[in-house]
Known about the structure:
Layout: H1 4-25, E1 50-54, E2 58-62, E3 78-81, E4 86-90
Amino acid sequence: MINKNFFLFVTTFFAVFVHLNLLETVEPVVYDLITNQTCDALNPCPAWQECYQFPGIGLRCAEPDPCSYYGCPQGKQCLLLESYPAQIRCS
């Protein structure tokens, strides 16, 4: 007969293993038009990019017209607040 503790251990281990593997297979959202380069008034972006404050990302140099490529959650609309740096909001 199988020991209850051993069975519980194996079952828990398997559940955690499956959960971790599922987490690893979820791909993060990658925005090719948003760079890793941070920006502000003292650290401007290259001439072909602009500085934007992205939700959850922060200040980044990115291609113009961010609402055309930044993905707001379903049911939310992308808004570009005119300030410096410009701010992207989802509402």
